[in-house]
Amino acid sequence: MVYSFSMILGYLLAAVTVIIWGITFVCTKDLLQNFSALEILFVRFIVAYVGLWIMHPRFEKIKSKDNILFAFAGLTGVVLYQFSENIALNFTTASNVSIIVSICPLFTAIIAQIFFKEKHITPYFILGFLISITGIALVSFNGKAEFSINPKGDLLALLAGVCWGFYSLFVSMINKKNYNLLGSTRRIFFFAVIFMIPLVLIGNKITFFTNNQDMINSMSVSFNKITNAKRFSDIMNIVNLLFLGLLASGFCFSAWNRACKIVGTVKISFGIYLIPVVTIIFAFFTLNEHLSLMGIIGTFLTIFGLFVSNKK
After folding, report:
1. pLDDT: is 187 or 279 the higher one?
2. What mean pLDDT do residues 101-127 have?
């Protein structure tokens, strides 16, 4: 099979994006020691939004009715997906979250068939889905003998996967409008930040309303000058936030949307199954995270299921 230059570019952009996104779980896990999940999300996409203005300092004319698509893309792909993923990292390992989120392509295919009438759900797809779900169950237990584990992190990661499926749907619809890629991504981030502002205002008061540490770790927002001066003067915090904002968000969302437009949303989404491999390697060396034999088997089942579901 001979691939055109544009097709090769699409796969290359997807591959670079997958590597960077695989590292984000490790960066976010590290930042959670000093920031809440909401703080990381808000700062990350403010940085990404500013970065995209620097890369593309032009205002794009958008049809008023199309703003609905951009708003839903910002809500599902940034606020709901990223927030669920960040909170999940409070309760489970970076490796677990990346493995569970890797089934995004399955939800993308299901949603594409429902709304676009595309024929993706085949016997192979169903078999692959069942294999992947079995793998996720094994990853969730990860060698624990007792079954009284806290499922919050794994369920939130699963929710993130569903949200990404809807985000892919809206991106497909936006790509058909032929708007400028950077301008479109920036507008998605604009609506995402708008949606996050009420959460930030609530998060600033969260410690007054609850002593629940899980809620504080997820939602709290500090405006304290001394606290913020200390956190934002830490070089590793700055590096992680810039990596998440400029590379993982500004560049990667644009690159991924471009890859979806060139290759196809459902087909390119199957590249996500490689993210856990990247995350597991980086988490092992930087966070000292280890998978048990059960977790390793679960990882292979999850990825194998994705291969099976993509078989024609």
Report:
1. 187
2. 75
What distance, in Å, lies between the first and last C-alpha atoms of the chain?
16
What pTM was computed for the model?
0.79
pLDDT given at position 71 = 96
Cα 18 from chain centroid (whole Å): 11
Q: Where are the alpha helices (DSSP H) in 32-151?
A: 37-55, 67-74, 81-91, 94-101, 104-116, 123-141
pLDDT of residue 177 exceeding 50: yes
Copy the structure tokens of residue 151. Answer: 């499922």
**Amino acid in the structure at residue 212:** N
Summarize pLDDT for 291-309 with one digit per residue, the tens: 677 778 877 887 787 778 7
pLDDT tens digit sequence for 118-175: 666 778 878 887 887 787 677 666 655 443 345 677 788 888 888 988 998 898 889 8
DSSP string, the chain: -PPPHHHHHHHHHHHHHHHHHHHHHHHHHHHTTTS-HHHHHHHHHHHHHHHHHHH---PPP--GGGHHHHHHHHIIIIIIHHHHHHHHHHHS-HHHHHHHHTTHHHHHHHHHHHHH------HHHHHHHHHHHHHHHHHHHTT-S-S----HHHHHHHHHHHHHHHHHHHHHHHHTTT--HHHHHHHHHHHHHHHHHHHHHHHTTHHHH---HHHHHHH-----HHHHHHHHT-HHHHHHHHIIIIIIIIIHHHHHHHHHHHH-HHHHHGGGGGHHHHHHHHHHHHT-----HHHHHHHHHHHHHHHHHT--
Distance CA 45, CA 82 (A): 10
